[in-house]
Amino acid sequence: MKNPWLIFSALLFIYFSLNCQLSFGADTISANLSLSGNHTIVSSGGSFVLGFFKPAGNSSKYYIGMWYGKVSTQTPVWVANRETPIRDIDSSELKISNGNLVLFDESQVPFWSTNISSSSSSSVVAVLEDSGNLVLRYEPNSSTLLWQSFDHPTHTWLPGSKLSLNKRTKESQLLTSWRSSEDPAPGLFSLELDPNGTNQ
C-alpha cells in the first residue's frame, strides 16, 4: 500500500503551487500566464479590470479592454483593439510574445500589439496598476517602463495619464470618442492639444 502521507504531501504541494501562481497572476500577464475566454486580471486594489468584453448591444464582436472594478455597470475606460475586434474569445489569447503584449485571434494571427523593441523578451511582464495604467516591464517590480497605456489613451482620461503634442514629430496623444455605443472604433470627436497654439 502506498504511503498516504506521501500522497497527501504531494497534493498539498500542488495545491499551494497553483495558489501561488494564481495570486502572482492576479494583476500580471507573464510568459507563463496569458489571458483568454472570460479570464481577467485585476489591479492590486481592485480598482480596474482587464479582459475581453463586448459592448452593450453588440453580440458578436469582442475587444480587450479595461474597466472599473468597483462600479456595478461595466464601464470601459481603455480599449486595445478598437478597430480590429475578434469573434472567438475562447480561442483568442492576450499574451507576452517576443517582448510585446500581443492579442492573437483563433488562428494565431496578431490583431493588436504594444509593438516595441525589447532586448529580453523572456522576462517581460504586463502589470495592471491600480491607477488604471497597463504597463510593460522587464520584471513585475521594475521601475523601468517599456510601454504604458497612459501614453496611448483611447476615449477616457484617467488621473495620471496625459494629453500631449510632440511639435517635432507632430505626434499627438488625444482622446477620441467611440463611433457608437456598440462600436469602440474611433468616432467623429476628439480632445487634443491645438497644434497651432502658442506656449503659455
Brief description of this entry?
The chain is mostly beta strands. 10% of the residues lie in helices and 33% in strands.
How does this structure look, described?
The structure is a single chain. This protein is mostly beta strands and 200 residues long. The protein has one helix at 4-24, and strands spanning 28-29, 40-42, 48-53, 63-68, 76-79, 93-97, 100-104, 110-113, 125-128, 134-137, 145-148, 164-165, 172-173, 175-180, 183-191. Helices cover 10% and strands 33% of the residues. The longest helix is centred in the first third of the chain and has 21 residues, at 4-24. The model is unreliable at 14-25 (pLDDT under 50).
For the biggest sheet, the summary is:
4 strands, antiparallel
Order of helices and strands: HEEEEEEEEEEEEEEE
Mean pLDDT: 84
- Kindly name the structural category: mainly beta
Total helical elements: 1
Radius of gyration: 20 Å
* Total strands: 15
Strand content: 25-35%
Unreliable stretches (pLDDT < 50, length at least 5) are 14-25
Biggest sheet strand order reads: 1-9-10-11
Topology summary:
Elements lengths: L3 H21 L3 E2 L10 E3 L5 E6 L9 E6 L7 E4 L13 E5 L2 E5 L5 E4 L11 E4 L5 E4 L7 E4 L15 E2 L6 E2 L1 E6 L2 E9 L9
Antiparallel strand pairs: 1-9, 2-3, 3-4, 4-5, 6-7, 7-8, 9-10, 10-11, 12-13, 14-15
Key terms for this structure?
about 200 residues, about 10% helix, mainly beta, four-stranded antiparallel sheet, globular
